[in-house]
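Dear colleague,

Thank you for sharing your sequence with our group. We've completed the structure prediction you requested, and as agreed, I am returning the results in plain text so they can be pasted directly into your records. Please verify that the sequence below matches your submission; if there's any discrepancy, let me know and we will rerun it promptly.
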Amino acid sequence: MREAPGALFNDQSCLVVDQTMVEEIKQRALSDPRGRFRLCLHHRPSDGVQQMIIACTPRSYSAPHRHPGRVLSYQMIEGRLSVVLFDDNGRVEQVFRLGGDGPFCLWLGASQWYMPLAETETAVFCEVLQGPNADDQAVEWAPWAPEEGGPEAAAYLRKLGCDVLGIGVEYEKQGLDCPDVTGKVVA
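Please find the predicted structure tokens below.
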């Protein structure tokens, strides 16, 4: 395996992912400053198919984005994950809650704005995305949402997490109240 910030890259011709490896990915996500970690099953960003086992936590902020001209799918492995879909103005259109007793697979068409939100301490899923992802055209970040790491990102994540997840369990553990943003553009 090759290591990169926030990721391990497969360098084998055959790779078996077992529960031990899933546990390692979860532990790395829990200790990662961004609250997520991934195992890339593909070898390089230039590969035609990008397959990743990703663990994320409720504090992980992957800003709303889309992949122009590319489709993707999520398959749950463990935990619960909400995938929030947005319109072009940042309004929540739909929420898919994956894992637990609910659906375990989601396919998204090209150019759909979306954002994953972990509902459990860790959510582990497989993401399959059309590649390559070696150029700056592979992802488009939503202009109406804060940048990852920016000063507004934590507040945006908290608002959206509370609104989408309802009770905001992980936020309540931190002693934070959930603001009422129902039916509003989260900004």
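Summary note from our side: Residues 159 and 179 are 6 Å apart (CA to CA).

Kind regards,
the structure core
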